[in-house]
Design brief:
Structural class: alpha/beta
Radius of gyration: 18 Å
Number of helices: 12
Distance between the termini: 21 Å
CATH topology: Inosine-uridine Nucleoside N-ribohydrolase, Chain A
Bound molecules: beta-D-ribofuranose, calcium ion
Low-confidence stretches: none
Oligomer: single chain
Largest sheet: 8 strands, mixed
Number of domains: 1
């Protein structure tokens, strides 16, 4: 039976690749998308989530609007030069047909987890505010969530939004620290692995040989994201594969090697959003997170290409 997942997302160019891959994967049943601020403001990411379910006829999948601001910290200005002002590479896409459901993202997460106890995996690929809110509103769901597989953090390499922090964790560090203490299993798909999975111009050329709504959309929205990677990291048209790697983990965890370790999140100052693995258990007692440390990059890339081109 397909694995039920809720993708909590701030689409977003790489979120788009992740969601289209998930929706084309028979191993996964996407029971809902929940939106979150991050790559764009909440109105925009919610509209993009609706556009993505409508793209290939998945309109029956509910989209619930999430938080517009972090739990405690101020909302930082949105970096529109990474994913475009519209989160879709400045392509100004037409409005979606549908609307978000009445429930908030946190309510939707709580109700869905309670409706399918022990069956639902949460897959956040943006700031963790909605997940933390759901855990705070209804702490009882922690024992009913099958697993949280999140894209975020970095324990062995530098950050991307700051010298020490990955963007999703940085944007709501308090929420991330709550999630790292959740009693359900938590898997962290962070920069340690996502920066090893690189989509090159040649990879995209092969991907775009097959034209379908997903590949055509990715082709349109990609250039802004490629320019950002080139400006920031000199990647000459290649990109890191962040959110789609989390989806690859959900489809085939065997592509990754994890290590179990308590993870702490710095919530303020210069190191806001830094994720520290307490390898030698020197800080206070905390549940362990399964941190992805190694990845079969070509396996992940082949899997994504296979799903997007079939
Ligand atoms: C994460 O930040 C966002 O820009 C991407 O969508 C991804 O979720 C990578 O650090
Ligand atoms: Ca994202």
């Amino acid at each position: 039976m397909a694995q039920k997942i809720i993708i909590d997302t701030d689409p977003g160019v790489d979120d788009t690749i992740a969601i289209t891959t998930a929706l084309r994967s028979p191993e996964l049943e996407v029971v809902g998308l929940t939106s979150i601020f991050g790559n764009a403001v909440i109105e925009t990411t919610t509209q993009n989530a609706l556009r993505l379910v409508e793209l290939e006829g998945h309109d029956s999948i509910p989209v619930a609007r999430g938080s517009e601001v972090p739990l405690l910290m101020e909302l930082e200005s949105i970096a529109s030069d990474v994913h475009g002002r519209d989160g879709m590479g400045n392509t100004n896409p037409p409005p979606p047909k549908g609307k978000a459901i009445e429930k908030s993202a946190a309510e939707f997460i709580i109700d869905t987890v309670r409706a399918y106890p022990g069956e639902v995996i949460l897959a956040p690929v943006g700031p963790l505010t909605n997940i933390a809110l759901a855990l705070e509103i209804d702490p009882g769901i922690a024992s009913l969530i099958k697993k949280i597989v999140l894209m975020g953090g970095a324990v062995s390499i530098a950050g991307n939004i700051s010298p020490v922090a990955e963007a999703n964790i940085y944007h709501d560090a308090h929420a991330a620290d709550i999630v790292m203490q959740a009693s359900c299993p938590v898997v962290m798909v962070g920069l340690d692995v996502t920066e090893q999975v690189i989509m090159t111009p040649q990879y995209f050329a092969e991907l775009f040989k097959v034209e379908n709504p997903a590949t055509n959309l990715i082709k349109r929205i990609l250039p802004v994201y490629q320019e950002y990677h080139d400006r920031f990291r000199g990647m000459g048209g290649s990109i890191h594969t962040h959110d789609p790697s989390a989806i690859a983990y959900l489809i085939d965890p065997g592509l990754f090697k994890t290590q179990s370790v308590p993870v702490f999140v710095e919530t303020e100052g210069h190191c806001q959003g830094k994720t520290t693995a307490d390898w030698h258990k020197q800080w206070e007692n905390r549940v362990e997170t399964e941190v992805c440390m190694e990845v079969d990059s070509s396996g992940v890339l082949d899997l994504i290409k296979e799903r997007l081109t079939k």
